[in-house]
Design a protein that fits this description.
By secondary structure, this protein is of the alpha+beta class. It contains nine helices and eleven strands.
């Protein structure tokens, strides 16, 4: 005998179906959210792992550098300079030591009572460093193009290519962010780059010369971490500059870029030496002296670029404004044989590189 369900049973059945439907919908939503979130999560984990590996490698380099200085401060340094270097190396050793350094041992290290009997391992050849394509730090600084195919040294605060024949950087590239806060007030001494040979010889070549030790990456822009503040003082960031340039036009341009980034949030900078001929003069037969220097500043938000060419002589102090140093990016590429802004679309790259820009005005 067939019986019809009562209204009460039908209502109960409908309620169960609704609950099952809601549960299924909830599971489907959770599954969709998981799929959406899993890819960024994997990317983020990979980024932190890559950064951690890079920072551990740098810590090892700095530890070896500190030990080498503690064993033998810079040759030719006077007593005050030697004490300053030892104190700096002592702090560097404590910062990068894999285990805590007791106060008693720290005091002995700084005073020179404790010496390291074994010499530090030899500095790795520049060819042992990773290419730009495989390093996240280099990628962040060279987002809009690698200036050359040369091997690149990847630092936390910048990237650079170093010419070991001329003993100076071929170019440097760095990204500036407006929201970075200054956390380092001290200025570290100039020390050899642990990734390059003959660092002490290069540093010594500046002594007694008429040239300043010019920083291609300005040290005040790298004060946002202790690691970047140390890196910017390595000899691989130095190039001989006439005092009129280093303290005049070059310093004024660095200050202007600092003000521009405060308004524009993000800027990308490439800078380097320019040699007009193959017969460049040398500094104590060690470092080649450039005839001039270039600096290219790119604003990705506004798709705007400024290029500068500054003479490396006393005339650099006679210019009245930065606009007198302005040239096209095409001109910079012509005198350096570099390829700038190569990651931009071809039409945009062509338009920007042939354009002679105007100095960016600061907002009132």
């Amino acid at each position: 005998m067939c019986t019809l369900p009562t209204e009460e049973k039908m209502a109960d059945s409908n309620l169960r179906r609704q609950n099952v439907s809601k549960a299924s919908l909830r599971q489907e939503c959770l599954r969709t959210i998981s799929i959406i979130l899993i890819a960024p999560a994997i990317t983020l984990v990979g980024y932190f792992i890559n950064n951690t590996i890079h920072e551990r490698a740098l810590e090892k380099e700095y530890l070896e550098l500190a030990i080498s200085v503690l064993r033998e401060p810079e040759p030719g340094a006077n007593a005050d300079e030697a004490n300053g270097l030892r104190t700096w190396a002592c702090d560097l050793f404590k910062l990068n030591s894999p285990i805590p350094v007791p106060d008693e041992l720290s005091g002995s290290l700084c005073s020179g009572d404790v010496v390291f009997p074994n010499p530090p391992p030899p500095a790795p050849a520049i060819s042992a460093y990773r290419d730009t394509e495989s390093d996240a730090h280099c990628d962040s600084h060279l987002r809009y193009g690698h200036p050359s195919d040369d091997q690149t040294l990847c630092r936390l605060g910048f990237a650079l290519s170093y010419d070991q024949r001329m003993n100076l950087p071929s170019w440097v590239g760095y990204r500036l962010l407006a929201d970075r806060q200054r956390v380092v007030d001290q200025r570290f001494p100039i020390l050899p780059d642990p990734a390059l040979p003959d660092g002490r010889t290069v540093i010594e070549a500046f002594r007694g010369s008429s040239f300043d030790r010019g920083h291609l990456v300005p040290s005040f822009e790298m004060a946002w971490s202790y690691m970047t503040a140390r890196e910017v003082q390595f000899h691989s960031n130095l190039s001989p500059q006439d005092p009129a340039l280093n303290r005049g036009g070059w310093a004024a341009l660095d200050r202007a870029i600092h003000e521009w980034v405060e308004e524009r949030d993000v800027l990308y900078v490439v800078a380097g030496p320019v040699f007009a001929s193959s017969n460049a003069r040398t500094l104590n037969d060690v470092i080649s002296v450039p005839e001039s220097y270039f600096k290219v500043v790119y604003d990705p938000a506004e798709q705007a670029v400024l290029a500068f060419l500054l003479p490396n002589n006393e005339n650099a102090a006679s210019y009245e404004s930065l606009s007198e140093f302005l040239v096209t990016v095409d001109k910079v590429e012509e005198v350096t044989s570099l390829d700038l802004l190569s990651e931009l679309t071809e039409p945009l790259q062509e338009n920007l590189e042939k354009e002679l820009g105007r100095i960016w005005e600061l907002r009132p």
